[in-house]
């Protein structure tokens, strides 16, 4: 899997139909392998939720956009998501547990990904501008005024440290991707190690990130940025993994992994949601639907996982779904 193919530029569609869609029934909400999971649809087609592009090729090859396009507010009552409308992609916020529309939080051309600050006051996002991606910060409640953080580079996937002193992000230079941080207090930039999809940990000076191995498969690594210790926690010779997200209590990591659906002569590569312990043990596959399940994020109480999926839509339209977490 060549992760570099999709990290740059805006690779989203409102409706995504695979090259073998005629063999996939998106309309069902769940499949027998998901027994015990309760799925709740959060959005409707009117919300125009962005569906990260997934491309399937010959020989069981599958590539997907792995950036963070969902997040939950500090109080747990609102979900932010990317929406594709009028030829643009922007951040919208919807109140959970209530019917109704969403509030637009950015007024840009091509927002790529984002995250809330731990105190819930800010949103940091990346926007694609020609051959560059730049980071911005905006108020999570008041509107469109943005502060630019980086410029002239290819930056994306911003994520705040627990103390809000740093914003970690991925930067692509030539054919490599590395994890950087922006120091909020003094505006300094620092670089740490190769990787993408940074996910800072709350209890130690470390982050999870994704790296490609020599065969092009995505692996999840843990990097201690003070000691320099690096540990691969999830790797599989047949699968790729991306998009780590740590549960609020720190006991679990949700992530996206590739999977294979087989039936007679039918073979279909897929993306599903997995979990494991922070040390990589106890890995479990949570979803098995032939729709692409992507961009997992935890509810604030750790009892649910929200994600983007085409399930439940005969047309393959993307929506935000919630499933219970029973472990």
Features:
327 residues, mainly beta, four-stranded antiparallel beta sheet, 1 helix, 1% helix, disordered N terminus
Please give a quick description of this structure:
By secondary structure, the protein is mainly beta. 1% of the residues lie in helices and 48% in strands. A hairpin with a 7-residue loop joins β24 and β25 (284-285).
| Category from helices, strands and their pairing | mainly beta
What do the pLDDT scores average to? 91
What is the end-to-end distance? 30 Å
For the largest sheet, list the strands in their spatial order: 2-28-27-26
Biggest pleated sheet: 4 strands, antiparallel
Strand fraction: over 45%
**Count of runs of 4 or more consecutive helical residues:** 1
Which residue ranges are poorly predicted, with pLDDT under 50 across at least 5 consecutive positions? 1-10, 13-22
State the helical fraction. under 10%
Rg, rounded, reads 18 Å
Series of secondary-structure elements, N-terminal to C-terminal = HEEEEEEEEEEEEEEEEEEEEEEEEEEEE
Topology, number of strands: 28
Describe what you observe in this structure:
This protein is mostly beta strands. The chain is 1% helix and 48% strand. It is built from one helix and 28 strands. A four-stranded antiparallel sheet has the order 2-28-27-26, with no helix packed on it. Strand 12 (132-139) and strand 13 form a beta hairpin. The two termini are 30 Å apart. The relative contact order is 0.18.
């Amino acid at each position: 899997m060549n992760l570099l193919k999709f990290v740059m530029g805006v690779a989203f569609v409102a409706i995504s139909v695979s090259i073998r869609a005629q063999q996939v029934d998106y309309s069902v909400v769940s499949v027998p392998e998901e027994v015990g999971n309760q799925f709740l649809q959060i959005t409707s087609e009117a919300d125009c939720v962005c569906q990260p592009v997934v491309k399937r090729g010959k020989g069981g090859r599958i590539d997907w956009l792995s950036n963070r396009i969902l997040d939950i507010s500090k109080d747990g009552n609102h979900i932010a998501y990317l929406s594709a409308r009028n030829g643009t992609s922007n951040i919208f916020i919807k109140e959970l547990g209530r019917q109704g529309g969403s509030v637009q939080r950015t007024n840009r051309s091509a927002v790529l990904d984002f995250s809330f600050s731990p105190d819930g006051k800010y949103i940091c996002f990346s926007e694609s501008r020609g051959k560059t991606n730049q980071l911005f910060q905006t108020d999570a409640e008041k509107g469109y005024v943005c502060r630019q953080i980086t410029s002239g580079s290819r930056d994306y996937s911003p994520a705040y440290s627990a103390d809000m002193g740093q914003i970690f992000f991925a930067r692509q230079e030539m054919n490599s991707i590395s994890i950087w941080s922006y120091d909020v207090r003094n505006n300094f930039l620092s670089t740490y190690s190769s990787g993408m999809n940074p996910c800072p940990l709350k209890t130690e000076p470390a982050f999870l990130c994704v790296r490609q191995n020599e065969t092009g498969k995505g692996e999840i690594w843990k990097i201690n940025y003070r000691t320099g210790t690096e540990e691969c926690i999830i790797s599989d010779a047949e699968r790729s993994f991306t998009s780590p997200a740590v549960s609020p209590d720190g006991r679990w990591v949700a992530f996206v992994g590739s999977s294979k659906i087989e039936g007679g002569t039918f073979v279909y590569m897929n993306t599903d949601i997995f979990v494991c312990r922070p040390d990589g043990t106890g890995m479990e596959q949570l979803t098995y639907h032939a729709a692409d399940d992507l961009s997992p994020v935890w509810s604030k109480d750790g009892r649910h996982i929200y994600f983007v999926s085409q399930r439940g839509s005969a047309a393959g339209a993307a929506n935000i779904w919630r499933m219970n977490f029973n472990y």
